[in-house]
Known about the structure:
By secondary structure, this protein is of the alpha/beta class. The protein is built from eleven helices and eight strands.
Amino acid sequence: MQARPIDCDLHPAVPALAVLMPYLDEVWRETVTRRGIDELNTIAYPANSPLTARADWRDREGRPASTLQRVAEEALDPFDTQLAICNCLYGIQATFSEDLGAAMARAVNDWIAREWLDRDPRLRASIVVPQQNPELAVAEIDRCATDRRFVQVILLVSGELPLGRRQNWPIYAAAERHGLPVGIHAGSTYRHANTPVGWASYLSEDYINQAGAFQTQLTSLITEGVFARFPDLTVVLMESGVTWLPGYLWRLTKFWKGLRSEVPWVADPPATIVRERVRLTLQPFDGPPDPATLTRFMEHMASDELLLFSTDYPHWQFDGADVIPAGLDPALAHKIMVDNPLKTYARLKETVA
Ligand code: ZN
């Protein structure tokens, strides 16, 4: 790999709630102690499941990606990564207490800033917010956005309501105001069944159905008018898979043509909106394995600006050193690794020559 890539989806892990204690106010330290909360790691897959992380990336305690040294050795140095965006998945969005969620979000963001960003100049981060309550989420965005190393707001794809609903608009207004894309990452607060037809039995069902949740949210954002209301907002779909996009856009565009009278604010074809305002991280790449079919798929994407390099380290689905699909045009690979991330995240340009 020749270009020094920008990794747009890296997952440092909170090793234990104890590391967040110094970043919690006294009332919340007492709350988690009195209630016996010792773990909020509900978003990541089961910690001990072999599928959750590659075996050689687990430390002695079994929690991968929980030290800067491991992340640097396993995910930054091997790719000669110039910048990486930390997306910390910890279960703060799943708490029913909005105040506890807000306190934990503050703790996670401060922990990331002090223990990761301060210690490695290659790292940037997404602002974790209590998406249970948009008002509190906006307060956290405003608090963190003054630190220019925070380059994005991260939401989970499956929360309580479709993301396009107006209750969520203050989050988009705040992100736009600060020049931050909104990144929507795979994950659920488990308020609803993990498939549209009920609860699934297996991890593979849950994981594959995440792509359906992304489609639902993208449709919601488009039809509710989020892109029209916030013209400078970019949305990044993270760990969504990518090969569903062309067929989805054919379907959405067809029915938008027939039903657009009910959503007159969607003035542009959905495919145009997506190509101008939506980006997707690469890993885990779910595309065809042979170069000829891969080339045809990229033609169906109809843009070389949609994809962003990511490792998705340390998830099991991560393709190891083969992050860039075999047979990808070298010029396109460079765009994915460097140019597209720099165009997507305005704040990254401040530190890249
Ligand atoms: Zn990810």
